[in-house]
Amino acid sequence: MIVEIVSTGDELITGSIVDTNASFLSSEFLELGILVKRCHVVGDDKKDIQAVLKEISLRADIVIVTGGLGPTKDDLTAEIAVEVTGDELIFNKHAFEHMEAFFKERHFEMSDINKKQAYLPSKSIIIQNDCGTASGFYLNHGKSVFYFLPGVPFEMKAMFKKRVLPDICGKFEISHRLKKKITLFGVPESKAAQNLEDFEKQFPDMKLGFRAAFPIIEIKLLSSVVLDNIKIKKDFKNASEWILSRFDPSQIVSAERLSMEEEVARLLIEKKKTIAVAESCTGGLIANLLTDVPGSSAYFLFSVVTYSNEAKINILDVSQKTIIDYGAVHENTAEEMAKGVMGKAGADFGISTSGIAGPTGGTEDKPVGTICIGFAKQGFSTARTYCLDFHDRSKNKKIFAYTCLNYLRKKLL
Amino acid sequence: MIVEIVSTGDELITGSIVDTNASFLSSEFLELGILVKRCHVVGDDKKDIQAVLKEISLRADIVIVTGGLGPTKDDLTAEIAVEVTGDELIFNKHAFEHMEAFFKERHFEMSDINKKQAYLPSKSIIIQNDCGTASGFYLNHGKSVFYFLPGVPFEMKAMFKKRVLPDICGKFEISHRLKKKITLFGVPESKAAQNLEDFEKQFPDMKLGFRAAFPIIEIKLLSSVVLDNIKIKKDFKNASEWILSRFDPSQIVSAERLSMEEEVARLLIEKKKTIAVAESCTGGLIANLLTDVPGSSAYFLFSVVTYSNEAKINILDVSQKTIIDYGAVHENTAEEMAKGVMGKAGADFGISTSGIAGPTGGTEDKPVGTICIGFAKQGFSTARTYCLDFHDRSKNKKIFAYTCLNYLRKKLL
Fold first, then answer.
1. What residues make up the domain containing B202?
2. Which of A39, A220, A390 to mutate to probe the B interface, most B CBs <10 Å?
3. Beta bridge partners of A370
4. What is the pTM of this model?
């Protein structure tokens, strides 16, 4: 089955926005076991879009077109669709009533230019948009079913999941597959790929997806079609176990689709423990990650960013002597920071970072990339030093924060 | 002039990674005054890539192809290039020596599979890669000049800027243009577009780029070709001023290419002032943004994330009575937090946030999206409440943090 994706809009070919719609759609099709054949990006140019649609209709089974369904004069998609298919635009009562209801609910008046959005190709079927004014539609042309969706990502995604996917699964008899997502940390991308090199040979019927979102690597496993087949379920289990066996257990953050911060949150909640954080070089990033998880107030008590030595001494009770003798970036300082913040917050655990994110501030002894991580719990505290320079301040802050969270995660196991 | 971009790699058509290379390249070409005609994404499939390259060579002047220059068996680009152009791969001494030096400098041994990367099409010219092992190359075929670059973004970007751009400017006589980037905050995307609707009519020779990176909007202005022409310089100045006049001055963060955090940093350094931050619902994001700016230790003294009431009382000296009488999410509490953190840190300014990021925790009086921002300086403190719900925890945290930074920015003007 050939699937192609067309993203339209001048904002894409000027580089103003990155085309995340195509990667979302590709990933959704992969979950159905279908590798998208080609993606196309074209500006808001009638001739260019027409040419692409005509060309694709000669070969693809499914085409998803996003963008150009808005109310302005740049929004040309419906017009182009009728020109390519030899159809005409007619007033669609459902589309109009939907817009009326949409505006009424929000206490806005519908403006005249929106009326254009109620005109759809006569031979198309409407795809309702619950989150916006732009209705989508689908139609047959050439070898293909064309699904036209708006370009606004959250509208497009909701419509695809709720209406287009079921339609595709009905039309093309796409069947259920087993899925698994594994989150890894602390293994370089190239090494992870190398570890899994033999996968295809070992499990020719399964598909493996691979996503590096620095510094996390996600592996997606997808079974072949499941027809209540015990063998496939067993094969899938074997494949999951094979993948997990290719990594050191400490590198596996979660085999249950969780991110690093979600896994740390899960462990803290499971063990009914609370945490306080003292950050220096990570500048609030650890706190930000931990509080991205909904319900984080259950375990996250308090955090500080103590850039200055005074703050480390005054707020965290780090001893002046430690800082004078060893410096701010040292295991002893990090350990005292972790103890200090735990005590201040009355938390079960304290974690801390002190390091050099760069680009300046490095010395021969303590180069950019040096990070000391402190950990404290009742009656016990410790610290460790790592050297991890990615030649970029933001990347260094990220790897420092994840290294600290991973350290905490392992302590919670 | 027709420019097309081809991004290759299975990781793109599985949705594993988003194709940021195409948007980078599109944006670079726009700065030359060239709107890219089409972008293509294809997997690591020989036939698919061949078909795309042949098709494009009939119409494009410049083609940039990224990906597939690595050492593994999936990396097929050089092979495909010779098949399409009827050329052959030959050993390139420069490419080989470059790799040797690259590995030697990093104290790694070059593995055998890397040798493949030294074979380039005989009729091509090498494009040196200073950051990796994959040399690029360019060649003429059909109507087009094809530039082949690696897919790793930081290698590709460096090679494009350093070697491809000068080559294109030489070959195609592309001339100097004036550029400006304006950063906006607090204006909805649709409203910003509407404000600038007449731009093309007013300044037909200039180009306007538009980028929404929530919650910031960036506007790029590009003049027509400058040939020491006083009129164009004057027109450009008029166009800049026209754009700025279309917005409320408080919405303009920077007309000098700076981000919100960079502009706040610039103002703090210019005025020789220091800052301390007390965050509740923003969970460390403000501190993280401020410390993303290199050299932030010059003005950033200290921050806390006080989720719990105890922490607000114990660390920030917020009075228990204030919290009991008004609650944690209240202007009085936010004001005391700002005063408290300023005092603890001995900073010139204190800022604070207390609000409800959601998805839970909202009430009828204080719905999700409620954010109180506190501000303190010597002898003065104040607070304000906003209601900004974007139906997404991360988005709410972002808009809260930027609203707070913008509040500080305006106080610094």
1. 179-254
2. A39
3. A387
4. 0.78
